[in-house]
Design goal:
207 residues; mainly alpha; Arc Repressor Mutant, subunit A; Tetracycline Repressor, domain 2; 10 helices; 72% helix; globular
Length: 207
């Protein structure tokens, strides 16, 4: 005799695959509903696992929030480092870098998650951010054309501006009678101009 079973089939996965599966589900919740949706029971349900499985992999819901932010930052850094192929074209590199920033911080909700981590005191656990910045700065300065201080400042201002636009850009743009993407376009333009102005001509013309 057959019996009705829960339609949500639970699948046993290798450790890293299971973590990635849960983080991917959590990111979908973040994009669709915001950081307040990242509760233990909701993430578990979206992942098709029990609450204890989420806790087993991340220790706490705060640990999952931090891991999700680390995942997003890691993916962003990978994209930025891949832009090294545009080293001889500063405008193209700047445009691609800005696009990658906004894809993570605005479209995928990293700005909202970062704000939530700051408000809940979890941001202090995010040592991966400092490591990510160092990797980008090392790559940028290794090609010449930009000092370490300039590269650090460029990363700092880029992330702060992308986070601000990701959090408030749409709402503030609409409140002043502008299209929803107006603030984002202004920030993108300023960042591109800043990158182009900061890079020395010798770096722009490098092979």
């Amino acid at each position: 005799m057959s019996t009705a079973k829960n339609s949500r089939t639970r699948v046993r996965r290798p450790l890293e695959e299971a973590r990635e599966h849960i983080l991917a589900a959590a990111e979908r919740l973040l994009i669709e509903e915001g950081p307040l949706s990242l509760k233990l029971v909701d993430v578990a349900a979206a992942s098709g696992v029990v609450n204890a499985t989420v806790l087993h992999h991340f220790g706490s819901i705060g640990g999952l929030h931090s891991a999700l932010m680390e995942r997003m930052i890691g993916q962003l850094v990978a994209k930025v480092l891949a832009l090294g192929s545009y080293a001889n074209d500063a405008p193209v590199q700047a445009s691609a870098g800005v696009e990658a920033l906004f894809e993570v911080f605005e479209t995928r909700g990293a700005a909202r998650l970062a704000a939530w981590l700051q408000l809940t005191g979890e941001w202090r656990r995010m040592t991966v951010v400092g490591d990510a910045v160092r990797r980008v700065v090392e790559q940028r300065t290794s090609r010449g054309g930009m000092s370490t201080d300039d590269a650090n400042d460029l990363v700092l201002v880029s992330v702060v501006m992308a986070m601000g636009a990701g959090l408030f850009g749409r709402a503030f743009s609409e409140q002043v009678g502008k299209p929803p993407d107006h603030a984002r376009k202004l920030v993108e333009q300023m960042l591109r101009e800043h990158v182009t102005a900061t890079v020395r001509p010798s770096d722009v013309n490098a092979a």
